[in-house]
TrEMBL record:
UniProt xrefs under PANTHER family: 4-HYDROXY-2-OXOGLUTARATE ALDOLASE, MITOCHONDRIAL (PTHR12128:SF66), DIHYDRODIPICOLINATE SYNTHASE (PTHR12128)
Official protein name in the record: Dihydrodipicolinate synthase family protein
Entry's EC annotation: 4.1.3.3, 4.2.1.41, 4.3.3.7
GO molecular function: 4-hydroxy-tetrahydrodipicolinate synthase activity; 5-dehydro-4-deoxyglucarate dehydratase activity; N-acetylneuraminate lyase activity
Enzyme class: lyase
Family affiliation: Belongs to the DapA family.
InterPro entries: Aldolase_TIM, DapA-like
Protein source organism: Achromobacter veterisilvae
Gene3D superfamilies in the record: Aldolase class I (3.20.20.70)
Length: 311
């Protein structure tokens, strides 16, 4: 695994868990649960945390709440592991402000997704080039490639152009879907051209983690409510034991797949974290999904089957 503290870089690997943002049942920030959730992630052995991402409901937070969450998590972590902060915003001024605030508080780098509706390769490149220029070389950047949410396709050629032009771009969060061939193309074309190799951490709930590791991913950046599985799977792959890693992964796959559902997945993930004692409430800020009685029973059954299989 990568170093326990410091900035993210091209060699970063392991599990950077995407942290949920806990709210009380009345919708207000639950800072005690921010602390307990941070402790939960650390106890499960994660390499680092990523906060204020899309799963962290960042667009639903006020400016003051965003600062509060950053301060609370970074203080709780205390430099024990690196923390990446999501800074995506429609305004490039806000991206810069959030990035500099995050780094001043002790962040290890920032994650940036493109603004929606960029249509061409040149538009995508120009967007990221502007952000990288504004932030400068001192702030490490993780590119978030998540077209299912942003509607923006970041091509392999654009990724290579950005890596060549901006040394501060050190990581790709790979979430294209389907995207495993894209991951292979980034790795193979980069090696063939003698290009700088960057870190690639994968998302999409970790649904394809074994295959992605075999194709050259360095780890995961996702928020599955059993992060210890992601940690163990990545460690086994890095130890040269891919079959054992995939056997372990397969035990969790039914629950992981269930939690991955678009629309309702965040509510399922938060409810699982609540049941595991990591947070006090599974509340998702409006607009957001709400589980019904059947959803709760279904989730409980899958958790029970997992616990039986592990036992």
């Amino acid at each position: 695994m990568s170093a326990p503290s410091g900035l993210i870089n091209e060699t970063t690997k392991g599990v950077y868990v995407i942290a949920a943002t806990p709210f009380a049942d009345n919708g207000e920030l639950d800072l005690e649960s921010v602390d307990s959730l941070t402790d939960f992630y650390l106890e499960k052995g994660v390499t680092g945390l990523t906060i204020l991402g899309m799963m962290g409901e960042a667009p639903k937070l006020s400016e003051a709440e965003t600062t509060t969450v950053m301060q609370r998590v970074l203080k709780r972590v205390g430099g024990g592991v690196p923390v990446v902060v999501g800074v995506s915003d429609a305004s490039d001024r806000n991206v810069e402000r959030l990035s500099r605030e995050a780094m001043s508080l002790g962040a290890a780098g920032v994650m940036v997704a493109p603004v929606p509706n960029l249509k061409t390769d040149d538009q995508v490149y120009a967007y990221y080039a502007n952000v990288a220029t504004q932030l400068g070389r001192e702030i490490p950047i993780c590119l978030q490639d998540f077209p299912q949410s942003t509607g923006v396709h970041t091509s392999v050629s654009v990724i290579h152009r950005l890596v060549d032009a901006f040394p501060q771009i050190v990581m790709l969060k790979h979430e294209d879907f389907p995207g495993m061939r894209k991951l292979s193309q980034v790795r193979e074309q980069s090696a063939a051209a003698g290009r700088r190799r960057i870190s690639i951490l994968v998302g999409n709930g970790g649904l394809f983690l074994p295959q992605e590791m075999l194709r050259g991913a360095d780890g995961a950046m996702t928020g599955f409510a059993y992060p210890e599985m992601l940690v163990q799977v990545c460690r086994l792959f890095h130890a040269g034991e891919p079959e054992q890693a995939e056997d372990l992964f397969n035990l969790y796959l039914p629950l992981l797949r269930h939690e991955f559902q678009y629309g309702i997945g965040l509510a399922l993930r938060k409810e699982t974290l609540r049941r595991r004692g990591a947070i006090r409430s599974a509340y998702v800020r409006r607009p957001g999904p709400v589980l019904d009685a059947t959803d709760h029973a279904e989730l409980g059954r899958l958790i029970g089957r997992l616990e039986a299989a592990l036992g």
